[in-house]
């Protein structure tokens, strides 16, 4: 079992920044690829970013087009924590943000491949 707990959400004005954290416990964190997803009111949950297992000091990342250049995913395996730095936030980024973990180190944008999920943290961006 892997337990995931997100934090760092809140209310921010458009153009502002937030950093989400996702702390993992229960099993060794480093082998897991991690993903960030979000769900806006009335919409389906969607992929935001993913980060693979660290190899040779590099953790590959992949982002949905709408956040490229604004969001950055990173991980600290020593702290069993993954982060999502969100800059230049827009009202359309408003959603509940979830982190998730998948077995195997390869990143994925497919939420069906993620087995463990956090409870989510609310991000609200005002215009």
**What percent of residues are in strands?**
over 45%
- Which spans have pLDDT < 50 for at least 5 consecutive residues? none
Indicate the radius of gyration in whole angstroms: 14 Å
Count of alpha/pi helices:
0
Share of helix among residues? Answer: under 10%
The tally of beta strands, per DSSP, is 11
Write the layout of secondary structure elements.
Elements: E1 3-7, E2 10-13, E3 18-25, E4 33-39, E5 46-51, E6 61-63, E7 71-76, E8 81-86, E9 95-102, E10 116-117, E11 121-126
Parallel strand pairs: 2-11
Antiparallel strand pairs: 1-3, 3-8, 4-5, 4-9, 5-6, 7-8, 9-10, 9-11
Which features does this protein show?
48% strand; 127 residues; four-stranded antiparallel beta sheet; 11 strands; single chain; mainly beta
């Amino acid at each position: 079992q892997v337990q995931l707990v997100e934090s760092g959400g809140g209310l921010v004005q458009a153009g502002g920044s937030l950093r989400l954290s996702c702390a993992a416990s229960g099993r060794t964190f480093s082998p897991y690829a991690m993903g960030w997803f979000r769900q806006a009111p009335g919409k389906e949950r969607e992929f935001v970013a993913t980060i693979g297992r660290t190899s040779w000091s590099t953790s590959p990342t992949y982002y949905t087009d709408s956040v490229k250049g604004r969001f950055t995913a990173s991980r600290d395996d020593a702290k069993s924590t993954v982060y999502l730095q969100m800059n230049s936030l827009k009202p359309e980024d408003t959603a509940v943000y979830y982190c998730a973990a998948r077995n195997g180190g390869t990143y994925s944008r497919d939420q069906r491949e993620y087995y463990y999920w956090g409870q989510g943290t609310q991000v609200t961006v005002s215009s």
